[in-house]
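Memo to structure team: turn this sequence into structure tokens by end of day. - J.P.
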Amino acid sequence: MTRRSGAAAERVFEFVDCAAQRLTQALLLAIIAIVSAQVFCRFVLNSSLVWSEEVAGWCMVWIVFAGAVSLMRGDGPVSIPIFVMLMPPTPRAVAVIFSRLAALAASLFLAWYGARVVAGGFNMISQATGIDTRYVKLCVPVSAVFMAVFAAAHLAADVRRLRRQGRGAVAVPGTRHGEPPLREAGAQL
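Reply from structure team:
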């Protein structure tokens, strides 16, 4: 990849990440507003909003998947890197590359299956709002595609690092960038 295309890809990645973060923030505010309105209507007006719980739940689903896009971009999915960091450089690099491949495969599977669910007969029209649930479920394949792109970018970066700088240059996900693995950190003390 040339420097110019790499910079363009990074700008697109940054835009997608920023959009995912803004979407999660907006949806969180929507949940707060919806639940607050429901509490007000129920306890002050003595009448409840029939649709509020359903829509707040849908917003939560979108928050989870949009947030997962941002986490994948930042290389932040939940992991416990202690065991990988204890490995010697070669098995550590293999474990990291394998975990990147697993994340990519899982994201691609989620995108494929999510698209099948959205396009299939698993959808219904909500009684409370009249909204087709396929629009709620659309967050799964859309988010998974972006997650797969970010997983592939992390995998490609690790493979490039491995080829150019050797097995010790492969960063362990879940650690701060530049943080030495535990064996090497212990040797430096």
